[in-house]
Design goal:
single chain; mainly alpha; 2 domains; two-stranded antiparallel sheet; 19 helices; 4 strands; about 0% strand
Length: about 500
């Protein structure tokens, strides 16, 4: 393949670099250094970035109000219901001894608001029998009294109703004759699928209704097993690809196409700061005008509008040709190669994601160990989950289609432009005089950490999100263009979103 030698301005002098044919030139030939220098306002930009990141982190991680009743399930409630379906579904497939072990695992989510704990009571009744459900109801009342927690009218009513229901089951009255139709309706409305499960026990005379209520649980188990199989296959292939990648990297057989040393680096930092401000303000505005019917649409429209920040470099005098070339908005030599590299790049990240999943379980175990397994807090437990979980759980196929398009197309484009195109580029330009590997490691680490902490999944998800972002940075470094990291990012979101829709649509 033929090559040519474009010029680049780096540290006040002209440097020769070799790029593949079809890749853009970082700057126009013959341009003078003075014409290409943009001083910018880096201190103000950094102050803006830090302030907005801190505000975003604080507000997205505020604890939920423990006074909220079981009707306000939110993201945590949907996640716990999904866990309940899985445990109950597995419980139908195994023997009694294994069921006891499952119940021990279920005890981990007997925490948080009263509504969550009442769902656990139902799982206890399913896996360990009605007597255990009654025991857990008594434990809940003791915890409420010990912590001076005042029950709402709905919560107190639900506890009393479940007591009557499980007392009937304990007396082998499997139809729950003590409950009125109003009480049954309240259980279904407040506890969702768990409420339906409570009203139709395994020994129910209406076995057709029992099979119907168990279908979501068995479907959940099937999806989880299929996902585990796919994850295992992806882990093996990803491990092989990662090993080959590192071999090529250490033998210097990879040609890195990102050429650092842009004169507009401070303008790119300013642009990232402008995007963060737009993201914050438009998100607040969307929340202010949101209703249950339009909340999703407003939030998504606000996110799309944040892409207007890309106009900032032009307003600051940087030519569009320089901007698009330096932040990776070009197709590369052969676009289909970029697509393949993006796909393989995502597969290569799967082993590292598996390690992060194991790390997450270790972190959760340590948190439980240090707290002594206490369940003295009625605030929603911290779980690494995105608000999109609630949109998926409560949406229809119309909302699912919109969510899929935004999560798998719009988000990868916007976030790759801002984080790998602008922020990572800034750090690489800032550290261009360092050793290459040190510059790449520094730039990927800082930009990936910022990427992770501003996401709403919580601090427990930071290692996994940072790992993904670092992988996208390496793809950007290797290919120069943003196509490969956009593809990898889109594939990751597509996998997660598809899995959520399958699990939440039961």
């Amino acid at each position: 393949m033929m090559s040519h030698d474009p010029q680049e301005i780096r540290l006040g002098k002209v440097v020769k670099v070799s790029l593949e044919e079809g890749l853009p030139e970082p700057v126009e030939m013959g341009a003078s250094i003075s014409e290409l220098r943009f001083k910018g306002w880096p201190k103000l930009a950094w102050l803006t970035v830090i302030c907005v990141v801190v505000i975003n982190v604080v507000f997205s991680h505020l604890p939920r109000d423990p006074s909220l009743g079981p009707l306000d399930a939110g993201v945590t409630g949907h996640m716990l219901e999904m866990q309940a379906k899985y445990l109950v579904g597995v419980g139908q497939m195994v023997d009694g001894k294994t069921t006891g072990q499952l119940y021990d695992q279920a005890a981990g989510f007997n925490t948080g608001p009263v509504g969550n704990r009442l769902s656990f009571v139902v799982v206890a009744g399913e896996l360990a029998g009605p007597q255990e459900a009654l025991v857990q109801l008594e434990e809940l009342e003791r915890a409420v009294s010990f912590h001076n927690r005042k029950l709402t009218e709905v919560e107190a009513s639900l506890i009393g109703t479940l007591k009557k229901l499980y007392a009937d089951y304990d007396n082998e009255s499997w139809s729950g004759v003590s409950l009125s139709e109003v009480e049954r309706s309240q259980i279904r409305q407040c506890l969702g699928w768990c409420g339906s499960l409570a009203l139709i026990p395994q020994e129910s005379p209406d076995q057709d209704a029992r099979r119907d209520v168990m279908k979501p649980a068995l479907w959940t188990v099937g999806i989880v097993l299929a996902a585990f199989f796919a994850l295992t296959v992806g882990f093996l292939f990803g491990l092989a690809i990662s090993i080959m990648f590192f071999i090529f990297a250490f033998t210097k057989r990879l040609r890195l196409r990102l050429v650092a040393g842009s004169s507009a680096r401070n303008i790119y930092l300013e642009t990232f700061g402008v995007w963060l401000v737009l993201h914050l303000l438009l998100g607040i505005a969307a929340g202010f005008f949101a209703t249950p019917e339009n909340s999703l649409y407003l939030q998504l429209a606000a996110f799309a509008c944040t892409l207007l920040a890309i106009l900032w470099p032009r307003l600051r005098g940087v030519s569009w040709s320089q901007v698009k070339n330096e932040i990776g908005l070009f197709r590369g030599g052969r676009p289909w190669i970029e697509l393949v590299v993006g796909f393989l790049g995502y597969i290569s990240l799967i082993p590292f994601l598996v390690l992060n999943i194991l790390l997450l379980f270790i972190m959760l175990s340590l948190m439980s160990l240090f707290t002594g397994g206490e369940i003295d807090s009625f605030a929603s437990p911290q779980m690494p989950a995105h608000p999109i979980v609630q949109w998926v759980a409560e949406g229809s196929w119309v909302e699912w289609t919109l969510i899929f398009l935004v999560a798998c197309v719009a988000a990868p484009i916007v976030e790759e432009i801002m984080f790998r195109g602008l922020l990572y580029r800034y750090f690489r330009d800032f550290s261009a005089a360092w050793r290459l590997m040190l510059s790449i490691a520094f730039s990927a680490s800082i930009s990936s950490f910022i990427f992770a902490v501003i996401h709403p999944q919580g601090f427990l998800a930071v290692p996994a999100l940072s790992t993904l972002a670092a992988g996208f940075c390496l793809l950007r470094e290797w290919r120069g263009s943003l196509i490969a990291p956009m593809v990898a990012h889109g594939l990751n979101n597509a996998v997660v979103t598809t899995l959520l829709i399958l699990l939440m649509s039961t």
